[in-house]
Design a protein that fits this description.
Layout lengths: L7 E5 L7 H8 L3 H6 L1 E6 L1 H11 L4 E4 L12 E6 L15 H20 L4 E4 L4 H6 L7 H9 L5 E6 L2 E5 L6 H6 L3 H17 L6 E5 L14 H15 L3 E6 L1 H9 L5 E4 L2 H11 L5 E5 L4 E4 L17 H14 L8
Parallel strand pairs: 1-2, 1-5, 2-4, 3-4, 5-12, 7-10, 8-9, 8-10
Antiparallel strand pairs: 6-7, 6-11, 11-12
Helix pairs in contact: 4-6, 8-9
């Protein structure tokens, strides 16, 4: 697929029992989405029609045999209909093996298209970890499923919010374990991965800031020892390798400095350190990006929200931003498996 053409973005509708189908439909009503790409929903037409009726919004659905048939037109919803699930048998707002299985089918089809070059990138509405587990998946979530389908061992998660790029040393582990994981070798290894990923995004010599762990970056060892014993030695070794790396930068200022464009990216040391900053900056505008796959994948930064499924109140902005970012990054992403 020519990267100069308007990119075709495959949008998986997520768990059919959650808000994914609703935000997917609402996102495709947004003119800025249609202006940036040709979006194609990958899911079940019966689910989308049921949600459309519940929303009281009339959509013009076009069922495609292939993404190449898609047309980027306002109020036209391009759909790849997998026929995975009967919408009338879905228990809305409840995790089930049926909805989990269907959401996995959507991901698998999207990856198939992306690997064949039939779509430029993937944007994903939320799935439910319990539901996919009930369906027999051995993977914890989206990223793990995508990695397995692409034969990639360790893809990177990046948060993108207002052009601030945030990476994570650790993510879904207890905080006490995250603190123990702040080690020189791990910081060096992760920063090298971050530097490579940023070059895939066209930043030839990225400036990377590493967050401190303790208040005031420990005040030279007065408040904790991790900065002096682990982070500073890691930064110095990375600098000796020729990387443009600074740190440790106190966590109460590093994200503001990134917003001021002092850095190309921030390496957050644990899950909430980066998530709180991103979601406070723009809760609905934060987008999760998976790097290290042969294609760009972006995602909403929220869950299935079973409690408000099919009530017409779900905010689609995160998916809107995810689709537009997928279109933008797909034009510059140059993945090299090395």
């Amino acid at each position: 697929m020519e990267k100069t053409a308007k990119p075709i973005i495959g949008v998986t509708i997520g768990d059919p029992a959650g808000i994914g189908p609703e935000v997917s439909l609402k996102a495709l009503l947004e003119p800025s989405v249609i202006n940036s790409c040709v979006p194609v929903l990958i899911g079940d037409l019966s689910v989308l029609k049921k949600v459309s009726n519940l929303l009281g919004i009339r959509f013009n659905f076009k069922v495609l045999g292939s993404p190449s048939e898609a047309k980027g037109e306002n109020k036209l919803i391009n759909v790849i209909d997998l026929g995975s699930i009967d919408a009338d048998k879905i228990a809305v707002g409840v995790a089930s093996s049926e909805s989990g299985w269907a959401s996995i089918q959507y991901i698998e089809r999207a990856v198939e298209y992306a690997l064949k070059g039939e779509i430029s990138a993937i944007s994903t509405a939320p799935i439910n970890k319990k539901a996919i587990s009930m369906a027999g998946s051995k993977h914890r979530g989206h990223t793990e499923i995508l990695a397995a389908l692409c034969g990639v061992e360790d893809p990177l998660t990046m948060f993108w919010v207002k052009d601030v790029r945030i990476f994570f040393l650790t993510r879904h582990i207890p905080l006490i374990e995250a603190i123990k994981a702040v080690k020189k070798d791990k910081i060096i290894s992760m920063t090298l991965k971050v530097e490579k990923a940023l070059r895939w995004l066209g930043i030839e010599r990225p400036r990377i800031a590493i967050a401190a762990l303790n208040p005031h970056a420990s005040d030279d060892g007065l408040i904790g020892s991790e900065e002096n014993e682990e982070i500073i030695p890691a930064v110095r070794e990375l600098q000796s390798m020729g990387l443009d790396v600074v740190g440790p930068i106190p966590a109460d200022s590093i994200f503001h400095k990134a917003l001021e464009r002092e850095y190309d990216a921030v390496l957050s040391l644990y899950h909430d350190q980066g998530h709180i900053a991103a979601k406070t900056l723009d809760f609905y505008g934060a987008v999760a990006v998976t790097l290290g796959l042969p294609f760009i994948r972006t995602s909403v930064d929220h869950g299935t929200a079973y409690d408000i499924a099919c009530k017409g109140v779900a905010n689609p902005r995160s998916l809107i931003e995810a689709i537009k970012l997928a279109a933008k990054l797909s034009k510059i992403y140059s993945y090299r498996a090395d």
